[in-house]
Amino acid sequence: MTIRKLFEPNSVAVVGASRDPKKLGHVIVKNLIEADFEGKIYPVNPETDEILDLKCYPSLDEAPKKTQLAVIVIPAKKVPSILKQCKENNVRNAIIISGGFSEFDEEGKELEEEVLEIAEEMGIRILGPNCQGINNTSNGLCATWPLVTKKGPLSIVTQSGTIAAALSHWAQEENIGIAKTAILGNKADIDEADIINYLAGDDETGVIALYLEGVEKGRKFLEAARKAAEEKPVVVLKGGKTELGAEAVKSHTQSYAGKYEIFESACRQEGIILVDSLTELYNVCKGIAKLPQPDGKNTIIITSSGGSGILAVDAIEDLDINLIDLPEQSIERLEENLPQECILKNPLDLTGSATAETFDESIKILARYKDVQNMVIIVGDPISGIADVLKERYERLPLIPVFIGMGKLGDEEKEKLIDSEIPVFSDPAIAMKVANSL
Predict the structure, then answer these.
(1) Count of Cβ atoms closer than 10 Å to residue 87 Cβ
(2) Domain of 329: which CATH number?
(3) Where is the CoA-binding domain (predicted)?
């Protein structure tokens, strides 16, 4: 069965809606309103007639018929009866935010099995339970938290609500934006492969970020990821790589983490990009989403910080990046236009006396040579006007900006780039991994 209406409903019932601002049932209704959800919102709570100026219904079966999505935020033991009301209302998709299922104890596991049996019998698709909902910025369906409304090409699929919240928040703060977010929870029914299949055909999704703990249906996941990767990049961070991590996974969502080496090998064969940390996941996806695609891997580093240049070079040892020599014809021009103290190698070290003008001259000269396919620009000092230089050159060249150690002035220059939707990085090593992923 399709899950399209999970992301694209014309109406949403929030079962367990609340007037108490501290409760999730209130937060979700509020976020739907503030995100300007394009459809109808039906709060469901038998103890009140109105929530946030919306008419409140005593039960789901008394809400308007053919409601397309139910968001359930009630105690776990009451969920089976709500699913039966979904059938009466012709609801075909439900998000179960509620916890207290298989992640909790054996009784909760039995309850989750009962919920799944009812859903299958009723023809209802379930996201969760024990999940943090979804977001679709194109129609304002922020049935999760925090409130994120900035539209962009990044779509997020995770088993962790906190990780989804972090990625979404960073993308909003840095003007990258998101397309879709889905937090899977216990994956009783809808799993990562189902969401990936949907996102593969979603025109608004440019890159898919995945945080996974356990993958119970490995063949199904790899098939979905392979097909998606043919259309758009798929970037995966796997939790539970170590024995201790695998134990933590089991206590979190009752997933089986499996052997990471097997998972890693299978993903690489299918063209899936693997990363090693949450910061790397975000930055690689940010780079893919917003940076120009270079014609190849021939890369030159231009830096005002020798130490940062060294860290960038160290990072490429296991990467598919070709750190080329400066083109012979460029060296004479660089000597004529740069201060004497500059070190004319790759990395091209402009030293601590670098200015916006010396960066500009270096970029202009090297951009003339077809062998130079990508440039990593590391700014390691407070340099006024550097953002203007990079904005002008960015329109025509593959540039990866790295700002490090620039203080307050650096923050101001960074904001100029962010306002222009140009991604900026703060770690030379991660910037090289981003370059490797383009």
Answers:
(1) 17
(2) 3.40.50.261
(3) 6-101
- pLDDT of 87 reads 85
Domain hosting 116: range is 4-127
Give 40-87 as a DSSP string: EEEEE-TT-SEETTEE-BSSGGGSPTT--EEEE-S-GGGHHHHHHHHH
Confidence of residue 256 (pLDDT cuts 50, 70, 90): very low
* Sole residue written with tokens 């709500």: 82
What is the SS3 assignment for 403?
Answer: strand
Q: Which residue has the tokens 């409903």?
A: 9
Report d(CA 218, CA 200) in Å as an integer: 18
Q: Phi/psi at 171 (nearest 5 deg)?
A: -65, -35
Residue 297 shares a structural domain with residue 372: yes
The size of the chain, in residues, is 438
- Cα–Cα distance measured from residue 85 to residue 283, given in angstroms and rounded to the nearest whole number: 43
Closest CA to 29 of 45, 10, 8: 45
Task: Give tens-digit pLDDT for 32-87.
Answer: 999 999 999 999 999 999 999 999 999 998 999 889 999 999 999 999 999 999 98
* C-alpha dist (Å) from residue 165 to 132, 156, 187: 9, 10, 18
